[in-house]
Fold Extracellular solute-binding protein.
Amino acid sequence: MKKSTVMMFGTVSSAIVLAACGGAEADTKDQVIIYSNADDEAIEVMQTTLDKKGYEGKYIIQSFGTSELGGKMMAEGKDIEADVVTMASYFIESAQTSKSMFVELSSDLKPLDGGSTYALPILGNVGSIFINTDLLAQKGLPVPQTIKDLTKPEYKDLVSFPNILDSSTGWLLVQAIMSEYGEKEGKQVLADLIKNAGPHIESSGSGPIKKVKTGEVAAGFGLRIQAIDAKNEGLPIDYIDPTEGNFTLTESVAVVDKEGDEALASEIAKVIATEARADLLKQYPVALYEGEQVEEKYVPKYLKKWDTTLTVDLLEKHQTFFKEAQQ
């Protein structure tokens, strides 16, 4: 997942126009403008699907980092240039609450979480532990079953995880710790984990899997699908679902309220949420709608959900929790 923090979030990508329509000389006057924080792979699926469904030349997609796009949404509201946004669901939730910037959007698909009246989920990411099996054997380390296991002395300087201040993937870790252990014990667990990680706290959500792949560390926490892909490539990588829980972050699509001029934008948003969903599900194998089937290996053992709606305000509170554990 792209780097995403609130206020202090650092590195973000510049807006990059991703083609939809015949290059830079294309007239954008009558095109639907889509702002997206999605990974390149997800954007490629969206674009391919839209083109196949007859929308080639009718839209352009601009890619932003999560914090950059989130800042624009919260600052500009419905005055934002975009007609459609695909974005971390918690940012869409917060923007709608504070700015009332999205129109009604529905489809025949039924979200497993009940959904909302103004956004449709398009993909989900799940957190887990992953390990380098060769290095674990070389070091004589036990296979961790919990996040708390990674705080044991034998894992000193051999564990990596993403920083919640820089990466939304790190929020999956903090949610699991706080949900299982509460604030008091959880803060100690997190403090011990921070000490064990030492220099291996990463600003990128993909940082931990890279270090586990190279054998720089023996264990990490990050996106479950990254470890599955590495294992499928034949690398000595395995993934473990921590008993504290596999928490999920979703991304959704929403249509900006442009005072009644949203017909084409709504069509395009629905195509992204419905017609592109099959291919997005292959890349991000997390069931989001009733009736969706996911291969058994992709189904986490301890799938859990935070007990309140995820919002930017909640993320800020959990970031404060992390900073207090660092002290």
